TrEMBL record:
Pfam families: Mga (PF05043)
Top-level taxon of the source organism: Bacteria
Protein name: Mga helix-turn-helix domain-containing protein
Gene3D superfamilies listed in its UniProt record: Winged helix-like DNA-binding domain superfamily/Winged helix DNA-binding domain
Domain spans labelled Mga helix-turn-helix: 77-161
Amino acid sequence: MYELFLDKKARLFFNLYRQLQRENRQSLEGIAKKLAISQWSVMRLIRQFQSMGLHLRLGIDILRQEGRLYLLTLEDFDERQLFFRLMEKSLVLQLLQLLWQHPNFTVADLAKAVFQSPPTIRRALREIQPLLAQYQLDIKLGQPPLLRGSEAEIRFFYLHLQFLTAGVEFQLNQQKILEEWQKAAIKRDRQGLRVKEDWFDRNQVQGMLSLPEYRFSGKGFDFLWQQLSGLETIWIPSLLEELLPKEWLRNQKDGGKEIYLEFYRLHLLAWLFSGNLALSLAPLPDRPQGNQLLEKLFHQHLPGYQLLLDKHPELPYCHELIFSKYQQQTQVHWLSFPLIE
């Protein structure tokens, strides 16, 4: 879904990479048919990528030999870095960043800022609508603001976007990224674009997560992001800790505290925001169906879990992603934007 951030040629090259990642040494003819372009266009994509020098910087190359294409990668190659480099000059990304900083920009203002025609701007904004819909956002090409939706969802989307554009170094720079996001959020506050205090059902969240009652000032909303991104510890007790079977946690560091906190963050995000939460977690090679025992426990003992499941049917999949990663003793990082097909 995040491939919609890429311009057409970058998106084709990334799809070419993904095709060879699934099955290496495919015929040039077969790859061209899968991408719905000519064999000549496939080779031009590869040559353009090589001419930019990205294959040397990122540790990835695609070679042709006897009519077949070979994907070569170094051991430290990171797919997220490839995606980030392909996205750097994305027109859609430029437009979204302008709308974050200048929410009252019109199509004409955007066209002037990026030296493109208004029809090109409209086309680019329409193409990103399926991704925006994952966050319950929409583009209205009339009077500003062009980006429509609740202010909380808009800020949720832009925090994700800033983590994505940070590339693979996002975890090291997480505090700095959040600070930059907060500066822009303060500017939006001054423009009258504030998060409404009643933007979520407090009673439901309180019943499931023991979230204390407090008012969402600008500072309070920023602190919420500190918690959800892991910069601040979530210390609030909830029923989740009591429900997780102890044998699952026995071999985990700190008695399984980290996995408990990841489930807590997942459910807090689910209550507060719309959209597909699986986009925030690294995918597994084989899509799991969810852990039946865990789902049974949640259905029986977590107040309002069915309401949460109705809002986010992807939750069982997300639970299994978290659990499986910890089984493999791999740290789960939230808001890291791994790529989902």
